[in-house]
Amino acid sequence: MGNFGPAAREALKDGQLRSNFRRAMDGLMSKRAALFADQDEWTRLRALGESIKARALAQLPELLEKLEANCRKNGIQVHWAETTAQANDIILGLLQKRGAKTLVKGKSMVSEEMHLNAFLEGHGIEALETDLGEYVIQLDHEAPSHIIMPAIHKNKQQIARLFSEKIKEAQYTEDVDALTGMARQVLRRKFREADAGLSGVNFAVAETGTLCLVENEGNGRLCTTVPPLHIAVMGLEKVVERLEDVPPLISLLTRSATGQPITTYVNMITSPRRPGEKDGPEEVHLVILDNGRSRSYSDEQLRRTLQCIRCGACMNHCPVYTRVGGHAYNAPYPGPIGKILMPQIEGMEAKGELAHASSLCNACVEVCPVKIPIAELLVRLRTEGAHARADAPVLQPGAERSTAEALAWKMWSRMATSPTAWKMAGTMAGTFDPLMPEAFGPLADWKKGGRTRPRFAKKSLHRLLRDKGVPDA
Amino acid sequence: MSGSMATTKPSTVYFFGTCIIDLVYPQAGLSAVNLLEREGIRVVFPQGQSCCGQPAYNCGYPDEARAVARHQVELFHQPWPVVVPSGSCAGMMAKHYPSLFKGDPFLPRVENFSSRVIELTQFLVNVLDLKLEDKGEPVKVTWHSSCHSMREMGVGDEPKELLRRLSNVELQELKRERECCGFGGTFSVRHPEISAAMAEDKVADIRATGAKTVLSGDCGCLMNIGTRMEADAKEARGEVIDGKHIAEFLWERTNG
User: Fold this and answer.
1) Mutating which of B16, B41, B44, B47 best tests the A interface, going by the most A Cβ atoms within 10 A?
2) Are A353 and A400 in contact (CB under 8 A)?
3) What does pTM read for this prediction?
4) What is residue A1's predicted lDDT score, i.e. its pLDDT?
């Protein structure tokens, strides 16, 4: 079973954490809003983005085969992994074949999904995160709290303290440029010395066999060009059909994610170093991970989860995420996308509870650049969690079911379909309200939220309108 | 938006009161009916009605929700608009009922019903173009938009338009008007602490406006915000700012 509830309660007590997130999310929301000020353009562009992803998903098996064929033609070797364990083994094998001992990593959420760093460490290989935020949290032995800004839970002072403790000869400073400079010094040396580089993939183009990677720090470019071996990892939903599909998706991605018209670096990787070329890796490998995605793919509704381009706008706008932060979800993908993705990846037993961590306010749905019906999918996953059925497209359907809750809904349904019972309940509630205990059943939980108990009215609306003579038919 | 909804004034409408209004805020429902009747509309309130079914639906119990939905659809069978004083319940009935009956032979009747559902303020402004004569003292109010009214029913400026038609009412907008108050139906009892953290911020936002009254078109939100303020007051963390459904406010201001 998961532990979102207790973790969230702990997080809520941390005033510093709450204000760090609030400030950061406010900034991200206003930057995004400024770049989508033109509502017509936003409506058109996101419809286009959705249609590109929907078209890709509609022919996913064919596109993946095409991607593989075209990558091979370009000299990129393609590997398929059904599980994260297989993906880890493939990467370990590639590293061991070259005797690699150090790996520099660009940002990759799929590698977080695989817990790759810990796995490699167990096999004596150092995996160093080179994205500044990832570097910060790796120094502090933490997991990312946001898919785009992994160290967003930390403020400047916390990072300054961390660097002064963990980086050799570092002086305490809160100067952001100086802090970035320190990290750069460490990382530059690592880039030069590393035996291999790893990166994620934002979009993989089937018709050309091109891997697109957007980033702001140049670390992605260094990871993919300096070491002799480059391994790219991607979830199988990252494939798009045509090269011309990429620009609108990049525009939606960077504007939604960080409020940038475009990232500082846009890498298009098509092959290893060719004869006569002066730089680039000798080998490029692409590892394509399934990890439950094809199970979701088999269901028409759940499939829409795979439209995601990992921009993080849903978490930036989520009132729950803003309050509890990313770590409470205990998942590589937190926030609204995590609430729908994690139960599908890891199963209802471990992560089904995340689907309930939402007020269904639809703020995420409003900003999703590819129109994933997140709220609808949350409700769907709650349903799968409450009902065991043999052909469910999720792992452990029914794992969230409580007999008491199921019975309560049955009784509620009977009452709400019986006019007599309903009216009687209204009368009883109103008459006996003054005698009711202050806290029992769901009302006890209601009061945990620092609220008083709602008072039932003496006369229900049914009664008031009947007394008034409002017609019934 | 209920696109197929006629924008000419109907002679008869159904009124769906919602369960929270029925049991906790009946004055809001009564005021809405009063407003409609004052415009010369015959209001029909089927006494057999209960709840829109959203609580069970949102918790993952579609069969139980479907039974309740079907009960309402059968009850509201005449071709009249169904006016709902809640964006959330209206959203359930207009947007989620059809998906609940996907593949069911009953679907055409559901679709017919859903197309007739209209949120109260949308009806008052877009269909009735309600004229209001303010008989109250000058007052400053603030407005809380419910998530489902905005994002499911597409309610935009209508409630504020109604407030603008009251000459003595000054509207001071919230800083984070579009942010959820933390109610979320059963979310409020499943994750009370998170819900409370959201309510706490909403209350602070409301207090900062200096308004005498906070208005909303959804009583779920009002219940969440109001009981939070009451608890604050009990522990001397701040006074209670009156929370009211917009229908009740409009009726009080104009029925002098």
Assistant:
1) B47
2) yes
3) 0.97
4) 53
The yes-or-no verdict on residue B31 having pLDDT over 70 is yes
The pLDDT of residue B4: 45
Enumerate residue ranges in chain A where pLDDT < 70: 1-2
Interface confidence, given as ipTM, is 0.97
Is a pLDDT exceeding 70 seen at residue B99? yes
The reply to whether residue A357 touches residue B178, judged by beta carbons under 8 angstroms, is no
Partners of residue B51 in chain A, C-beta under 8 Å: 416
Point out the residue among A320, A429, A452 whose CB comes nearest to the CB of B194.
Answer: A320
Whether A452 and B26 lie within 8 Å, measured CB to CB: no
Whether chain B has a CB inside 8 Å of the CB on A265: the answer is: no
Domain boundary, last residue among A229, A257, A291: A291
Q: Is A248 left (phi over 0), alpha (psi -120 to 50) or beta?
A: alpha
Cβ-proximal residues to A293 (8 Å cutoff; 6+ apart), any chain: A235, A236, A237, A306, A345
* Binding-face residues of A in 309-368 toward B, CB within 8 A: 319-320, 323-324, 356-363, 365-366
Domain that holds residue B159: 139-254
Give residue-wise pLDDT tens across range B182-203: 999 999 999 999 999 999 999 9
B21 at A interface, C-beta within 8 A: yes
**What's the number of domains chain A is made of?**
2
Burial class (CB in 10 A: 0-12, 13-18, 19+), B207: middle
Element (H, E) at A267: strand A265-269
Strands A265-269 and A210-215: antiparallel
Q: Which amino acid is at B36?
A: L
Tell me which of A12, A25, A358, A360 to substitute to probe the interface with B (most B C-beta atoms closer than 10 Å).
Answer: A360
Beta carbons of B22 and A462 less than 8 Å apart: yes
pLDDT for res B6: 55
Q: Which of B48, B179, B197 sits opposite A12 (nearest CB)?
A: B197
Instruction: Give the C-alpha separation, A268 to B102, whole Å.
Output: 44
Asked if B193 and A12 come within 8 Å (Cβ–Cβ), the reply is yes
Based on the fold, state whether residues B144 and B105 are members of the same structural domain.
no
Q: What's the rounded mean pLDDT across residues B98-117? A: 98
Taking CB atoms and an 8 Å limit, are B67 and A319 in contact across chains?
no
Give the model confidence (pLDDT) of A135-189 as tens digits: 999 999 999 999 999 999 999 999 999 999 999 888 999 999 999 999 999 999 9
* B4 within domain boundaries: no
pLDDT digits (tens, 9 = 90+) for B47-96: 999 999 999 999 999 999 999 999 999 999 999 999 999 999 999 999 99
**Cβ–Cβ contact B46 with A under 8 A:** yes
Q: For chain B, what is the radius of gyration of the CA atoms?
A: 18
Looking at the fold, whether A271 and A415 belong to one and the same domain comes out as no
Tell which of A238, A270, A291 closes a domain: A291
For residues A225 and A259, is the Cβ–Cβ distance under 8 A? no
How many Cβ pairs closer than 8 A exist between chain A and B? 207
